[in-house]
């Protein structure tokens, strides 16, 4: 299975020094003409290059009511990616959070090769990776939520059409005026014929889930797009796109516990992630209700799990629960009907109410499973036991 990487469509001008100018497909003052629109474009600096081809800053020649004076010209010798980008440019042409495609046309190179060109919206601040490099600043949480929700609107439209982006990296998200994010580069978007996903042959390993990179999960799913969005959220909060966000880093991020929980859920194993862009938008815009203790008459017949730090050794509590007629599980599952919560562990994955088990309770409740939360005193009353308090090490 090939794991070839794709790269950015547009980079900030400051990044152009890293580009190899010796292999330019277009000259620095070339004027190219589009037989489709009748417009011509004067080629300027080379902004970036990647697996698809090269991107240049360009100036529109002549008048147009639909194409701005400054655009990016993306040119490639590969027709397949060009066709996809042209198609999705038309499909998403009216979406305010997608980079606009103004013109698409073939181009005969001076050496006789056929090239394929796109005239794209110019993002004045470059791609997100270059922008964070240049500014070195964390984004405010309210801005992060708003801008990621905007990107997710585009992704949601793709997901509803059974399409997967597969390349949601900081070099394919662009910063326009006023720190407004837009999504671009649809060159490896694919349609899935069923819910099992798309066989992975081409990807960017720097932002792909580890099970995809390792080949343990052979098909890319919408939940893997969600993983990449979680990485983008973490990078904005952190103010850097140099390295991917790891799950142990999440609790130390400078944001609310709720946003930490959202990021952690995105990065979790596939079965526990948000299932689609629409579900992730809901999580970002509507925080869940606070976890509150419920009421129960008996432990007999319930399926029970413990979480947090208890006042006794966990084994003693398990023994009492079983004696009272409960079936005890190591963690919450679709069978679980009761969870006994001890004191929060300071090392919980994403804040006071977002240990791994508490997050799983919330996820299961979202899916319609009824789970009653009990505090420790309630549990002991129902168990009919006075606990023998002993010193012990914290348990997750």
Notes on the protein architecture:
The protein has 396 residues and is of the alpha+beta class. It folds into 3 domains: 20-121, Phosphorylase Kinase, domain 1 (2-Layer Sandwich), CATH 3.30.200.20; 128-285, Transferase(Phosphotransferase) domain 1 (Transferase(Phosphotransferase), domain 1, Orthogonal Bundle), CATH 1.10.510; 303-383, Rossmann fold (3-Layer(aba) Sandwich), CATH 3.40.50.10190. It has 10 helices and 16 strands. It has helices at residues 79-91, 128-135, 141-160, 210-213, 222-238, 257-267, 277-285, 314-323, 356-366, 376-383, and strands at residues 31-33, 40-49, 54-61, 70-76, 101-108, 114-121, 163-164, 173-176, 180-183, 190-191, 198-199, 219-220, 303-307, 327-329, 338-341, 372-375. The strands form 5 sheets. The protein has a 6-stranded antiparallel sheet with strand order 1-2-3-4-6-5, with helices on one face. It has a 4-stranded parallel sheet with strand order 14-13-15-16, with helices on both faces. It has a two-stranded antiparallel ribbon with strand order 7-10. Strand 5 (101-108) and strand 6 (114-121) form a beta hairpin. The longest helix is centred in the middle third of the chain and has 20 residues, at 141-160. The protein starts with 30 loop residues before the first strand and ends in a 13-residue tail after the last helix. The relative contact order is 0.10. Mean pLDDT is 87; it is low at 1-17.
